[in-house]
UniProtKB/TrEMBL annotation, chains A, B:
Protein's recorded name: Asparagine--tRNA ligase
Species of the source: Pyrobaculum calidifontis (strain DSM 21063 / JCM 11548 / VA1)
Keywords on record: Aminoacyl-tRNA synthetase, ATP-binding, Ligase, Nucleotide-binding, Protein biosynthesis
Residues covered by the Aminoacyl-transfer RNA synthetases class-II family profile domain: 132-431
Gene3D superfamilies listed in its UniProt record: Bira Bifunctional Protein, Domain 2 (3.30.930.10), Nucleic acid-binding proteins (2.40.50.140)
Domain of life: Archaea
GO molecular function: asparagine-tRNA ligase activity; ATP binding; nucleic acid binding
Pfam families in the record: tRNA-synt_2, tRNA_anti-codon
EC class: ligase
Keyword Transport: no
InterPro entries referenced in this protein's UniProt entry, alphabetically: Aa-tRNA-synt_II, aa-tRNA-synth_II, aa-tRNA-synth_II/BPL/LPL, Asn-tRNA-ligase, Asp/Asn-tRNA-synth_IIb, NA-bd_OB-fold, NA-bd_OB_tRNA
Gene Ontology biological process terms from the UniProt entry: asparaginyl-tRNA aminoacylation
Family: Belongs to the class-II aminoacyl-tRNA synthetase family.
Amino acid sequence: MLPYKSAIPIAEALRRGEGKATVRGWVYRKRTLKEKVFLLLRDATGVIQLVVPRAKFPEAESLNLESSLVATGVLVREPRAPGGVELHVESIDWVYVGEPYPINEDAAVSDSEYLLDVRHLWLRSRKMQAILKIRHTVFGAIHDYFRRRGFYEVHPPMFITAAVEGGATLFKVEYFDRTVYLTQSSQFYLEALIYSLEKVYTVAPSFRAEPSRTRRHLTEFWHAEMEIAWAHMDDAAKVGEEVIGHVVERVLDERQDELKLLGRKVEALERAKPPFHWLSYDEAIEVLRKKGFALSWGDDIGADEERALTLEFDKPIILHGFPEKLKAFYHRNNPQRPEVTLSFDVLLPEGYGEVIGGGERIYDAKELVEKIIRFGLNPEDYQWYIDLRRYGSVPHAGFGLGVDRLVMWIAGADHIRDVVPFPRDIRRTRP
Amino acid sequence: MLPYKSAIPIAEALRRGEGKATVRGWVYRKRTLKEKVFLLLRDATGVIQLVVPRAKFPEAESLNLESSLVATGVLVREPRAPGGVELHVESIDWVYVGEPYPINEDAAVSDSEYLLDVRHLWLRSRKMQAILKIRHTVFGAIHDYFRRRGFYEVHPPMFITAAVEGGATLFKVEYFDRTVYLTQSSQFYLEALIYSLEKVYTVAPSFRAEPSRTRRHLTEFWHAEMEIAWAHMDDAAKVGEEVIGHVVERVLDERQDELKLLGRKVEALERAKPPFHWLSYDEAIEVLRKKGFALSWGDDIGADEERALTLEFDKPIILHGFPEKLKAFYHRNNPQRPEVTLSFDVLLPEGYGEVIGGGERIYDAKELVEKIIRFGLNPEDYQWYIDLRRYGSVPHAGFGLGVDRLVMWIAGADHIRDVVPFPRDIRRTRP
Ligand SMILES: [Mg+2]
Ligand SMILES: [Mg+2]
């Protein structure tokens, strides 16, 4: 048998703490002390100290960091070793000697351009490993939440011909003899699918040609979107509370080690249980004016205002009832108060801000066409979307959740780039 | 309370079979008999017959198909009704009267261009509903398979600058002041991620500018890809057997009604348990020559040959050991027999053919650069991919699975378009 096939995960070796074991992995740290070489070996599960006799394995001393190897020996409890256990190596059966590794992890500044240039290697760092594990848990929890509540997972197209969010940030694709666009949101397609499946969700990439480099924008991001038939704004907002609450709970359950490694304080996460803090747009304007923002009713609530609001409350905020002109045409106006829409955003605490945008959609065909015209758009461009209202339309509501932003907040990252394995923005498209 | 909030799913009403109930949904069929209007009402869960007194609800008779409504009444067992239960309607609380519905479902030919033009409505058909439910189950089972076996879900980029599968089928995107491409496969990125997480998978769109309209090609498709550190061709092929076996078992468990509605015979599905039929390329050439194909060793095994092979065996086939020149440069050559690669395809039975392509990757830096040059490519174009081998490389293997193709086979569909909600090919980019 190939030597590395009998290896056990390093976390398992640390748990056992005695007996013979084979481990495999990458050299994470190295130090020589008299007759012994101490190698810290990492794998996907942890880090263990290998104690290697120099005389028997002279090559150990000259191994570069990130070299890979398979070692067999005896596990011994040693309080001074990381994880409290070390492996006294008896044989090394497989080695791939690496060139001198170009990254000094201890000195690295995580959002530097250099680390983005060598992102394919920086993924090996313990920090990225921890973030990627949290990310894995977040995505799994989103799927579980929707599936357990009777939503069907669907797969809307990436190539589209009509804009949901407005034309300015559309990417153009050369599509044989014509031009198409990349999807910004699957919402219109989810709306078509509720007439068949009633409750649908998708977790898929969306694309926005964002010309600015901010800490919370990328040109491609993962979007969890859902839509429910026979539902209203409050129904959708409650799903938003619940899915975030469920995700956070799962991460707190499964990823304590990773949160600790990242230095993430978990108090704000522990408080993120439904119900969130419901705040109307009107109330938000009041709160912000008291805090010194020169705002009038009707003004947009931008990134700075969002930040100020989230610092005012210790839970995520459901900010609802935006004025008509601040939200896209498809939002249903409140029949009791037509100047505002049945729309909401969810804002994450600690300054993180918007993670969900959603609301109730116009379901009446005539009302939709009138609003399209009122917004200066052409109903011809939305023919099939209007069509959905011509045959047995129903009240419905939904939202889109920026999953990378959710991971960013949960991990306590400073920049959205830090939580995406290969981030893309206006300047960066490689590796 | 809004009337439709008290509705129960139609499947639940059919199970109860007695007592008072409110249901909601869309008019699927309509017929008038003397003083009664019989409406078949559909929702996401089933179809129930509503018995509506004409005198009390004169509007019922003129309702167009696909109108939506909410009805309350008494459930009565009636063997002649679909599902064996009907609702004797006492009140209709909510109606959205549709225009005359443009599709006659009974007359519809499923792959007609017209049904593709009105795909946003055709999704309401019972056939599409059944297929979308199977699709939902397939995707869920793929995630479950990988997660339960310790794989981490990762999210490689959609915007790329180097081709995995060759430049001919790359889509170009106008990316601010330059051009980038859409991903054809996440393999290279998964290879980077195994050095951190060891076992990784992704389920994401891939894009290929396929100029031909065939029954198994689309320009965007969902790709389940995985990569494992410290692994070889056989390890990857076994994961392929297992994931397909697991998915099929789940569908047989959860989706019998949908398979029946589609008229899918399930014998071939029931036989799709690991181990599959392992067949070397050399053996395949022999089998095909005996069947009259004029093939020499080294020739490609195209769609016709695949079809013939799959009709020869009653299980999926692991076809392995392709000649070097038939597979991309990154496949590792067999050290015992350098003219063949440690590569494999999985072919689905009943003529469906290739659903997985995978194998062992070259992990030695020098060997990789030599093969890139031997293939007439430029190592400069693969700098970061080669880089992965410069620091502690390990043997590894993986594959890509075309999820839409898997759904197509499981559903017994004639065309891949039939199992995708909004299919895209050279001619079609809307709705
Ligand atoms: Mg906003
Ligand atoms: Mg092939």
